[in-house]
Design brief:
Elements: E1 3-8, E2 12-14, H1 26-29, E3 33-41, E4 44-45, H2 48-61, H3 69-79, E5 88-95, E6 104-110, H4 115-122, E7 124-130, H5 149-160, E8 165-169, E9 175-178, E10 182-187, E11 190-194, H6 204-212, E12 219-223, H7 227-231, E13 235-240, E14 244-251, E15 254-255, H8 260-275
Length: 276
C-alpha cells in the first residue's frame, strides 16, 4: 500500500518516509503494540468509534498504557484530507514505547491495495491450516496486536500452496478465522460464522454484516463448526475492513459455487458506508 500521510502523537504530521518509532520501543523489541485497520470511504473512516473501542480493548489485553481517544482522533483528522474524495486505508497503531515511556500513537493513511477488486471479481482460494483456539487470557482472545508473525507465516504458506488465503482450524477441526478476516458460509438461507467465544477477532465488518443480513432474508448462526460443514456450503466468503466481502471459490482444493449472499452483502456494506 502506498503511504499517503502520517501523523504521530506529540509531533503531528510527519513525512511517511521518516522514521518515527524508536529502536527500543517495545513494539519493535517485543511486538507490544495494538493496531486497527479502517476502510476510508470518500474521506470518511467507516465506524471509527467501533475501531477505537476495539483498540482500547486490545491495548488493555496486552497491558499497554491507556490512550487518549481525542488525541488519536486528532491524528486521524490530520491525515484524512490526503485521501481527498478517494477511498483509502487508515491504520491506527498504539505502541508501548520504550521501557521508560512514553507510549506512541500513529495514524497512517495509505491507498487501497489494487489487487482487492480483481480478487473479488474472480473469488479467492483458501486452504485450512492448524490454528490455536484462544481459550485462555494469555492467548489474547480477540486482541489485535502487531505480533502478526504467525498470521503472515500462514498467509505465506497458503500462497506457497497456490491459494490466496488461509483459514485457521483448531486441533478438533473447528473453523476459527482467516489470517486477517472473519469467515462465513451459506447453506440455503442460513449464514454460518464462528462465534466470538472461540477467541476470534470481533471484526467491525463482521458486526456490520450481522446487522445487514436479516434485511436480505438471511438468518445468521454463530457457533463452533467443523470444517466439513464449510466444505459442503453453497457459498463461502470472508469479511474484513479493507477487503470488505471477499467470495471464496475454493477451500482445500474443493470448488465452491459463487452465490448471491456475498455480492448482496458487499452492495449492502457499501450502501451502509455511504449512509453513515
Amino acid at each position: 500500500m502506498t503511504a499517503l500521510a502520517l501523523a504521530v502523537t506529540g509531533r503531528g504530521l510527519c513525512d511517511p518516509s521518516e522514521p518515527v518509532v524508536r529502536a527500543d520501543d517495545e513494539a519493535v523489541l517485543r511486538g507490544r503494540a495494538a493496531f486497527e485497520t479502517i476502510r476510508v470511504y470518500s474521506g470518511r473512516p467507516f465506524r471509527l468509534s467501533a475501531h477505537l473501542d476495539r483498540l482500547e480493548a486490545s491495548a488493555a489485553g496486552i497491558a499497554l498504557p491507556r490512550f487518549d481517544r481525542a488525541e488519536l482522533t486528532e491524528l486521524v483528522s490530520l491525515v484524512l484530507p490526503q485521501s481527498g474524495a478517494d477511498d483509502a486505508v487508515l491504520r491506527l497503531v498504539w505502541t508501548a514505547g520504550p521501557a521508560e515511556g512514553p507510549p506512541a500513537g500513529l495514524a497512517l493513511l495509505s491507498g487501497v491495495p489494487v489487487w482487492i477488486d480483481a480478487a473479488r471479481e474472480r473469488g479467492a482460494r483458501a486452504v485450512s491450516l492448524l490454528g490455536v483456539r484462544a481459550a485462555a487470557p494469555w492467548l489474547l482472545p480477540g486482541v489485535k496486536s502487531t505480533s502478526y508473525a504467525v498470521n503472515m507465516a500462514a498467509e505465506a504458506e497458503a500462497k506457497r500452496r497456490g491459494a490466496d488465503e488461509a483459514v485457521f482450524v483448531d486441533a478438533d477441526g473447528v473453523v476459527l478465522e482467516g489470517t486477517v478476516t472473519n469467515v462465513w458460509w451459506r447453506l440455503e438461507e442460513t449464514l454460518y460464522t464462528p462465534a466470538l467465544e472461540l477467541g476470534i477477532l470481533a471484526g467491525v465488518t463482521r458486526a456490520a454484516l450481522l446487522e445487514l443480513a436479516p434485511a436480505r432474508g438471511y438468518v445468521v448462526e454463530e457457533g463452533a463448526y467443523r470444517l466439513p460443514l464449510l466444505l459442503e456450503a453453497e457459498e463461502a466468503f470472508t469479511s474484513s475492513s479493507v477487503r470488505e466481502i471477499m467470495p471464496v471459490v475454493e477451500v482445500d482444493g474443493r470448488a465452491l459455487e459463487r452465490g448471491p449472499a456475498a455480492d448482496e452483502l458487499q452492495q449492502a456494506l457499501r450502501a451502509l458506508a455511504a449512509a453513515e
